[in-house]
Inverse folding.
């Protein structure tokens, strides 16, 4: 086995607490059609102060799962004030971009499939709040009954090899500058230019004969808010 | 100013290159827009959607961005 061979195989499960198991089952199983694939009913979990709970799982494709904990008797947080979900609450003055930054994005293969999930959500109590074309993906968003932001997304085109190079140079530049006081995007872009000068041509030369610069036909479309 | 050569960024590079003072070079998979004068890109002329527009610059060498809003992108000598 080579050193640091990439052995992992996607998300086994991502787990979240819920105070509304009925709504959660309705949203994931009945509206989205994600099968229930596993559950655990547990009388506590050892320590006396651990509540009894149910841990239940929905298949999100690719054998990956999203899972929830429902704890009997645990009081729900007050969601009448502030922002956020049942797990993380924020004050009203917290910027919306920050509240939304943590979310679950589930992949679909086509526009047809994206719009099918849009149809299912729009016919439910949790209609799509946004449909957005980002740089190379298109996404729909809603909040589940727990307030968790759920995104369903499709690729507008395949990822190109140079995007992997660019991502690596961006991350390396970020790591290089993040220790500087008052660092900015400008610092990152300047450092990244140095890395491009060092590596970009050698990377290009190492590419297979097929020209990585060959353009693909990017779908055109209007942008939603 | 470096722009990664992907289909979404084509409009940005093309609009920048309309200015005769801007030289278009390449370094690996990046388009390099080079000029002694400020480089100005009109957003509407590029046809770039929001997310593409605000992420189209890959790197800066010898210049800094002095405007990057809904109207234009402007880079000037540092």
């Amino acid at each position: 086995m080579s050193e640091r061979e990439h052995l992992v195989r996607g998300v086994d499960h991502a787990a979240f607490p819920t105070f509304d198991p009925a709504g959660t089952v309705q949203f994931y199983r009945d509206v989205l059609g994600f099968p229930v694939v596993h559950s655990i009913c547990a009388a506590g979990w050892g320590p006396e102060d651990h509540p009894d709970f149910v841990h239940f799982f929905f298949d999100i494709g690719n054998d990956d799962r999203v899972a929830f904990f429902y704890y009997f008797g645990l009081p729900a947080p007050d969601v009448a004030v502030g922002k956020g979900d049942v797990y993380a609450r924020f004050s009203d003055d917290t910027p919306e971009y920050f509240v939304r930054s943590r979310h679950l994005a589930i992949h679909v293969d086509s526009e047809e499939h994206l719009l099918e999930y849009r149809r299912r959500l729009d016919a439910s109590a949790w209609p799509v709040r946004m449909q957005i074309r980002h740089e190379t993906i298109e996404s729909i968003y809603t909040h589940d009954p727990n307030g968790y932001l759920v995104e369903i997304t499709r690729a507008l085109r395949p990822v190109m090899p140079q995007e992997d190079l660019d991502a690596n140079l961006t991350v390396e530049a970020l790591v290089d500058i993040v220790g500087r006081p008052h660092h900015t995007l400008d610092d990152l872009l300047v450092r990244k230019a140095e890395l491009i000068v060092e590596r970009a041509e050698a990377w290009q030369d190492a590419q297979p004969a097929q020209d990585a610069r060959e353009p693909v036909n990017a779908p055109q479309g209007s942008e939603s808010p | 100013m470096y722009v990664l050569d992907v289909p979404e960024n084509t409009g940005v590079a093309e609009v920048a290159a309309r200015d005769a003072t801007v030289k278009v070079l390449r370094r690996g998979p990046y388009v390099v827009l080079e000029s002694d004068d400020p480089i100005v890109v009109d957003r509407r002329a590029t046809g770039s959607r929001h997310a593409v527009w605000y992420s189209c610059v890959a790197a800066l060498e010898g210049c800094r961005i002095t405007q990057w809003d809904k109207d234009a992108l402007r880079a000037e000598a540092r």
In short: Confidence is low (pLDDT under 50) at residues 215-225 of chain A. Chain A touches chain B at residues 132-136, 157, 160-163, 165-166, 169, 186, 189-190, 192-197, 199-204, 212-213, 215-218, 223 (CB under 8 Å). Helices of chain A lie at 21-31, 96-100, 111-122, 161-177, 185-205. The beta strands of chain A are 13-17, 36-42, 53-59, 65-71, 83-84, 89-90, 104-107, 130-133, 137-143, 149-155.
